[in-house]
Specification:
The complex is a heterodimer of chains A (108) and B (112).
Chain A: E1 4-6, E2 11-14, E3 19-25, E4 33-38, E5 45-50, E6 54-57, E7 60-65, E8 70-75, E9 84-92, E10 95-98, E11 102-107
Parallel strand pairs in A: 2-11
Antiparallel strand pairs in A: 1-3, 3-8, 4-5, 4-9, 6-7, 7-8, 9-10, 9-11
Chain B: E1 4-7, E2 10-13, E3 19-25, E4 31-37, E5 44-49, E6 56-57, E7 65-66, E8 76-78, E9 87-94, E10 102-103, E11 107-111
Parallel strand pairs in B: 2-11
Antiparallel strand pairs in B: 1-3, 3-8, 4-5, 4-9, 5-6, 7-8, 9-10, 9-11
Classes of the chains: A mainly beta (108), B mainly beta (112).
């Protein structure tokens, strides 16, 4: 099992819809998790941190399921500007390991 | 805005040349990282550092080398550039492995 696995997509979603994607991780000792957003040809930027069961910020909700070892990202009322690649990050031994990312396309 | 800077932003260079990609941060972070990313592909960790005089190889083998003589500076060097080195190189820093990583804008390298 890879350390961090994500569904690569792409997810093609109409504007206004709700979309969710998951990230599974192999290290059961991981304590903190992050979702980053990367726009085309740009650097990744932090979207949300997840330290306990979950986190919510406006239209974005991140949830952690330790028993099944996955984190999810839910985007409500999606906007065209949400089109990007969403990267799951699970730190390991002080290294920051990225998943392959999930591509999201919001359709007008 | 993150205070981490990479230069140059774009570099086109001939095969066999020696190049150094610069990365500097003013946040006082001990941990710094270099990632390599091809277009549309995943980020691969190629080097990281826990602090001054500490450097480690990442999960992806790379012919590049790094140094960490000062906390704020983490340059990456290719002794002899080849077309296979063409890629985007992203530098990042963090207070620790379990905290947010801040990225520079990247260097897009093309070796012809």
């Amino acid at each position: 099992r890879k350390e961090v696995e994500q569904d690569p997509g792409p997810f093609n979603v109409p504007e206004g819809a709700t979309v969710a994607f998951n990230c599974t991780y192999s290290n059961s000792a991981s304590q903190s998790f992050f979702w980053y957003r990367q726009d085309c040809r740009k650097e990744p930027k932090l979207l949300m941190s997840v330290y306990s069961s979950g986190n919510e910020d406006g239209r974005f909700t991140a949830q952690l399921n330790r028993a099944s070892q996955y984190i999810s990202l839910l985007i409500r009322d999606s906007k065209l500007s949400d089109s990007a690649t969403y990267l799951c990050v699970v730190p390991r031994d002080d290294k920051i390991i990225f998943g392959k990312g999930t591509r999201l396309h919001i359709l007008p | 805005e993150a205070d981490i800077y990479q230069t140059p932003r774009y570099l086109v260079i001939g095969t066999g040349k020696k190049i150094t990609l610069e990365c500097s941060q003013t946040m006082g972070h001990d941990k710094m990282y270099w990632y390599q990313q091809d277009p549309g592909m995943e980020l691969h960790l190629i080097h990281y550092s826990y602090g001054v005089n500490s450097t480690e190889k990442g999960d992806l083998s790379s012919e590049s080398t790094v140094s960490r003589i000062r906390t704020e500076h983490f340059p990456l060097t290719l002794e002899s550039a080849r077309p296979s080195h063409t890629s985007q190189y992203l530098c990042a820093s963090s207070e620790g492995g379990f905290t947010e990583a801040f990225f520079g804008q990247g260097t897009r390298l093309t070796v012809v």
